[in-house]
Write a structure and sequence with these properties.
- This protein has 12 helices and 9 strands.
- By secondary structure, the chain is an alpha/beta fold.
- The protein has one domain: TIM Barrel, CATH 3.20.20.
- A 5-stranded parallel β-sheet has the order 3-4-5-6-9. Strands 1-2 form a two-stranded antiparallel ribbon. Strands 7-8 form a two-stranded antiparallel ribbon.
- β1 and β2 form a beta hairpin.
């Protein structure tokens, strides 16, 4: 029986038979369909996924004419901390544009959170202005809402992660609601400074890392920014496929934020004024790459069908079927990209 090279979700290599791969693909799409209450992939789509996975080439690509654009979070740092090349952010962005042909990038501070940037906005704005003078591609300013930074001892509100285990539900919810207001002010303030510095847009990255309040803070800030700076591009990238209900009762536009999967998350993003949405599908490192890929494509396909704005699927380590390893293998990454674009209909990555 023929065995085909593939991987596990942690990147380790394995060999599976054709029947085993088909079984993994079916289980993966059914898992996504069950969790998200969405349609599973069709037999034809599963057949195409199978062909993508068993292709004998090491690195694959999309069919000519189906190329998409890319965006990136904290892209200015990746040459420095992944390739271990000493380079400042402004230079790294030029390398991404002129050498690596990036379509867009974001400029962010090493402490990639809006709260941390507030005190040094004047310095960050100057870097953005210089970058704009030396590049052509769109450059956004990126950071995380990171609501957890607003908790004591470093922030002004109580820590809900400490209150919840004590059964102090009311107090924990009140702390999150107060943190939202602080975060919204900071994000709007920074967007104003970056708009004045010539930024092409703002990137709200890893939204939901602190749960539903974290997402709501981003949505509220984006709504205000869209009204104040209508020409500013806004990208919103999620932290996970499912919004955790750390508060549980928060709503945006009449929709409860907690519990939403990508195809419902994008609806709120559109209402707020987002121009590019970055959905996440988490990789299960204990499952095979075929299982993770079918699952990711199922979620992304449902998201793109629900969206009327561009969808840039997250394809980094541990998301978008990409193995959870610091340097994801090119064979898996390229297959994930091809499948998310050609079957999931992603507008970008």
């Amino acid at each position: 029986m023929d065995k085909y090279f593939t991987r596990m979700g942690d990147g380790s290599p394995i060999y599976l038979s054709g029947d085993e791969i088909r079984s993994e693909l079916l289980e993966g799409t059914l898992d996504a369909a069950d969790r998200g209450k969405i349609a599973e992939l069709s037999p034809e789509e599963l057949d195409y996924l199978f062909e993508i996975i068993i292709s004998p080439v090491n690195v694959t690509s999309v069919v000519r004419g189906k190329e998409v654009v890319t965006s990136s979070d904290s892209g200015a740092f990746k040459i420095s901390y992944q390739a271990n090349i000493s380079m400042d952010r402004a230079t790294a962005i030029q390398v991404h544009e002129k050498v690596l042909a990036a379509d867009s990038l974001d400029l962010g501070n090493i402490d990639y959170s809006y709260k941390a940037v507030k005190a040094i906005l004047h310095d960050e704005a100057k870097v953005m202005e210089n970058v704009q003078l030396n590049t052509i591609m769109p450059v956004l300013y990126g950071a995380m809402p990171n609501l957890g930074l607003y908790t004591r001892p470093d922030g002004p509100v109580d820590n809900w992660s400490e209150l919840l285990p004590k059964g102090k539900i009311v107090e924990a919810r009140a702390a999150q609601e107060e943190a939202i207001e602080h975060a919204v002010k900071d994000m709007v303030y920074i967007a104003g400074g970056m708009n004045a510095a010539g930024a092409d847009g703002m990137n709200f990255d890893t939204c939901g890392a602190s749960g539903d309040a974290d997402v709501l803070a981003a949505l509220k800030a984006i709504e205000i920014i869209r009204d104040k700076y209508p020409a500013l591009g806004i990208e919103m990238g999620m932290s996970g496929e499912f919004i955790l209900g750390m508060h549980g009762q928060l709503e945006f536009g009449g929709t409860r934020v907690a519990g939403l999967y990508p195809h419902r998350q994008v609806e709120l993003a559109e209402k707020a004024g987002v121009t590019i949405f970055g959905p996440v599908v988490n990789t299960n490192s204990n499952k095979s790459f075929p299982w993770n890929l079918a699952r990711a494509v199922t979620f992304i396909k449902a998201c793109t069908e629900a969206a009327s704005i561009p969808v840039h699927a997250n394809v980094g380590m541990g998301v978008g079927a990409t193995p959870m390893t610091p340097v994801p293998p090119a064979d898996a990454v390229s297959r994930a990209a091809k499948a998310l674009i050609e079957i999931g209909k992603a507008d970008g990555l």
